Structure formats: structure tokens, C-alpha cells
Amino acid sequence: MRAIVGTVAVVIFISLFGLLFIEFTKEAANTRSIHTVLDESIDANDIHLSTNSYISDKNGSVVYEVYGAENRIELNYDDIPSYVKDAFLATEDRLFFDHPGFDITGISRAFLVNMQSDGVEQGGSTITQQLARNAFLTHSQSYERKISELLHAYQLERTLTKEDILAKYINTIYFANGVYGIEAAAEYYFGKSSSELTYAETAFLASIPNNPSHYNPLEHQERTDERKKWVLSRMLEEDVIDEDDYQASLEETIELTDTSRREEYPDYVAYVYHELKELIAEEERYSDPEQTGAENEGNGEEDPLQARTNEVLAEGVTIETGLDPALQDHAQRQLNQELSGSDIQGAVSIIDHRNHSIAAITGGTDYQLFDYHRGYQSFRQPGSAIKPLLVFAPYLNETNQTPESLINAGPFERNGYEPENFGGNEYGKVTMTEAFTQSYNTAAVRMMDQTGVEESFAYIEPFQFKQLNDSDYRLPAALGGFTHGVSVNELTAAYTVFAADGTYQEPRAIQRVKDHNGDVLYEWNESAEDIFEKQTAEQIRTMLSGVISEGTGREAGFDTSGFLGGKTGTTNEFYDLWFVGSDDDYTAGLWVGKDSPESLMDESSSHLHTRLWRQIMNR
């Protein structure tokens, strides 16, 4: 008897507390004291939900979903289907549009149950309270947390509209397996948008948040199906559906789809992540992204540029790229078929030089996302592949000579430096075309000496080879003798200058970054720069064609009605094998070598690099 009286007294007390709270806040509003405290303590507008971002290919198809711990696709109120909103209102809070953020009757009922069970078994929470808990509080079961929840709910109701609260609630609720919000849940479990859900599927999903572990569809679908029946009955009672829809939904079989995340083209995606940092750094004036991370590495400080990049990715952006899925697949497949199973690695960059976009880029054989990426992170000696850019084009530009002009390919010495031709062979005067197609080293060094080292390097400065430094300004550079070298992507990008009649615009993977409304957030501010005369570019293209038709790159050739040309590159001891060239549409660069340099003499003799380039380009 005493327990019943005590329980009744508690219920009455809670009810009176609720009424007094409402009246008190009305009075307090006149002095603004409680509202001032709430405004200072709780920023109801500070609900920032991380939402998925996407990387799309050149056709606009999504190839990769970017999300962290929370897989979420945020929807605006008007984009949430009405029957989805009504389903949650029917099951969670049918008086949502009438109460001030909390339901006194519901709280009293929950408190009565808790008193009888001697614990916190029910919460009696409204949708507003649940949003307050999801956005600001923990999920601990305590009366202190419940009081804080009431205050947060009251502040939410003061600040936001009912529609905003309902939308944020539906976007924050948890659907198990790292999935948050109805749109991500629909995509994850059914492979469709929430606007395409049937009533049965809607009820099925609405069953999960009540207890995500208990109703996890991937582990306990029979439990979720059972609760779905109750949700449908509530939808019927609240006139969300009629009797016919109710019966049809009960009979409908729920079929879950493949829940795998879209994670295609890891080589290209990894490069997009890298380039996004560069784009944000340029647009928002961060320091050099290569140095920013290094400065903070090891000192426990977060890289501010990386933190900003993560913020952007959490805002639900779409990164539009120049990825050509067919080319990417083809290039990766050829590399894997030729090199997998050995310790030889390779990397390819393919650039659509008509629109200055990176169509494909590989990070190595059997590449996994965020592994060491040999396409842009590996810097190797380019060998003779640098000659068209650093030697021949500057020489032609400066001297007004022609490919048929004679150049001395005999022995050369300058300050103790005596380059040798392949095999130690010596030649006399030859045409520039022969020196180019047969890759005579002595002729190349002599030409650079005549042009001038500083003048020659001035021509390649616009290509922004990241690892070049002052110590590289010397004659051995004519043969690719750099301190660190260049990346595959850098060298390939530089070669596009010849396809563009001597002008250069840096090729990019990212075309633009858009927010969830479709507005452009970031876009490269690129402009073309004149590097070589048009005639010079034409002359280099002619000589590049000769390399394939009659020079060191014969194995790279294949039947085509259009242009085909390129240049080989081999470093000392055969550590690195290169071929960079183009057809009418694409410029492609290929590097083959070992991560720990070793001789590839046999592979060079069998023309591995030129054959592989041909297989990739002859698509």
C-alpha cells in the first residue's frame, strides 16, 4: 500500500514539476534570465551532421563514397518522403506538433514504470528529446541526463521550427552497422533512395532505431520483421496507410541487397585525396601541403590542412573528376598481368590532353587504397625521357635550328664531365632527328651546353617538378641526372605541352568540388602558359614519331591512322625504364622499376617498358 501511495505521489510530483516548469519559463522569459542562460549554454543551431561525400567519374557516375565513422546522407525536410516522416511520428511521438518539446504524460508514465522496476527502463522521450540526446548528450540512463535532456529539448523548440527538428531527428537516428539517417539506411539495406521505399520497407527501417543491436537486420532480420508488423499497425492507426496498404505490406517479403560500399578505382581515388588537399590549400591559402604535414609530423599537432580537408569531406560534397573508368581498368589490368608475381613495379599516368584532365593513374601492381602511390609519390631518375623537355625543345626554340640541322655527337668534355653514349659508341656529326631518335647522349649534353644550363632549366620551371633543386642545374641533367628525379604523373603532364602546340596547362584529376546543393565550392584557377613556339612543338612531335617508327621505341608502335610518338628513358645500371608518348587524344607515361633499385637489363633487352606502353595505349 505504501509503495502505491509513494508511486502516485511521485507521479503527481512529476506532473506538477512539468506544469511549474512551463509557467516558470513563461515568467522567466520576461526577465530573460533563463533564456539568457540557455542561449549561452546551448547553441541549438550548432548541430553539424557529418554526411557522405562522393567522387564521380567523367560521366558523373559515383565511383567512391567518402564517409568516416558515420555513414550518413543528410536530407532537407522537403526531401524526406511524407510517409517516412509520418511513420516515425506514429511510432515515436504522435503529439510532436502539439507539445513544447516534452510530453508530461509520457514522462509520468515512464517514471511509474521505472519506479516499479527500480531502475531506468523507459524514457518517455519525445522526438525533440531524442534529437537533443543524439546531438548534444550521451545515452546514459540516469535522471541527471534526463533533466539535461529536457532543458536541451526546450531550447531546441525555442530556436528551431518543428520541421527542422523532425528533419534533424530523422537524419541523426542510428540504423545499426554504422548507418545514420533514413537516406543512408535506404541505400545501405535496400540499394535505393528513401523516396523509393515501399510502406513495408519504411516500417522495416523504422523498426531498427528502437534498439539497433536487437533489431540489426544483418544479424536478426526475424526480429526486425516482427517489429515491422507493430510499426505497420501504428501507421494504420494514425491513418498513414489504409487497410489495403496495411495488408499488402504485411505480406510483402523484405529482401536486403548487397550492402557493400562503393569503393572502386583505389589508385585514382588516392590521388584525388592528394589533389583535394592541394586544391583547398590553394583556394584557402594554406602553406605548401607537402610541408604542412611534415612540420607537424611527430610533434603531436594535427595538420591544419588535413583537418580542413576532413571538414570539407564531412560536409557532403561531390568531387567531379576526369576519371575514365575504362582506361583506368585497362591500364591497371595490363600492369597487373605483366608485372604481378614479380618484385618489379610499375606506374602509369594517362592524360586527356584535349581537356587537361587526368583520365587514369596507377599506384603500382595490385594497389590498395592509400598504399605507397608510385604514380605521384615516387620520384625516379627520368633518363633520356627528359631530353625533349630540357634539351631539344629549348635548343630549337633558342637557335632556330631544324630537326635536319647537324649536331656533333662526338666525344664531349666539360670541367671533367665526359658523358658516354650507350655501349660506349662514338659518332660524328648527325642530324638532330638522328640524335633524338637514337638517343645519343653526347649530342644532348653538347646542345644543353650551347643553350646554357640556366636557360634550359628556365623552360621546365612551369612544369613545377617538385623535387628539383639548385644542385640539379648542371650538365648531367641533360641525361636525367637529377638529385631526386620526377614522378610519372609530373613527367607525363609536362609532355602534354607538345600536344598543345607549346602551351601548358597543368592537368588535373579534380574538375570541381560541389556542395550538396550543386554549387561549386572549389575549382582550379588554371590558365595556359606559352612555353615553346608552335613550330618547336611540331618539330618535337615529328621526332617523337620517329622514335617509334625507326628509333629506340619501335616496340611501342601499333597501327593507327593518327599521330603516335614517344621517348624512351633508361637510367644508369638499368634501374629505371621509361616511356612517355602520345596519340591524338592522350598522353601517357610509364615507369617500370623496383622500389629498391636493381638492374633491369634483361627487361630492357626484351623491351618490357615499350611493349607494356603499347598494350596500354592500343586499347
Explain what the structure shows.
The protein is α+β, with helices and mostly antiparallel strands and 619 residues long. The chain folds into 2 domains: 2-55 and 63-251, Penicillin binding protein transpeptidase fold, CATH 1.10.3810; 345-585 and 594-617, Beta-lactamase. The protein has 23 helices and 16 strands. The strands form 5 sheets. It has a 5-stranded mixed beta sheet, covered by helices on one side. β1 (53-56) and β2 (62-66) form a beta hairpin. α1 (2-31) runs antiparallel to α4, α5 (127-136) packs across α7 (162-172) and α16 (387-399) packs across α21. The radius of gyration is 33 Å and the shape is elongated. Residues 117-123 have low confidence and may be disordered.
DSSP helix fraction: 40-55%
Spell out the CATH superfamily of the largest domain: DD-peptidase/beta-lactamase superfamily
Give the class from helix and strand content and strand pairing.
Answer: alpha+beta
As a percent range, the share of strand residues is: 5-15%
Mean pLDDT: 89
Give the number of helices. 23
Architecture of the largest domain, according to CATH? 3-Layer(aba) Sandwich
Region (Disordered): 282-306
Domain Glycosyl transferase family: 61-235
GO cellular component, one term: plasma membrane
GO molecular function: penicillin binding; peptidoglycan glycosyltransferase activity; serine-type D-Ala-D-Ala carboxypeptidase activity
Compact description:
This protein has 619 residues and is of the alpha+beta class. Helices cover 45% and strands 11% of the residues.
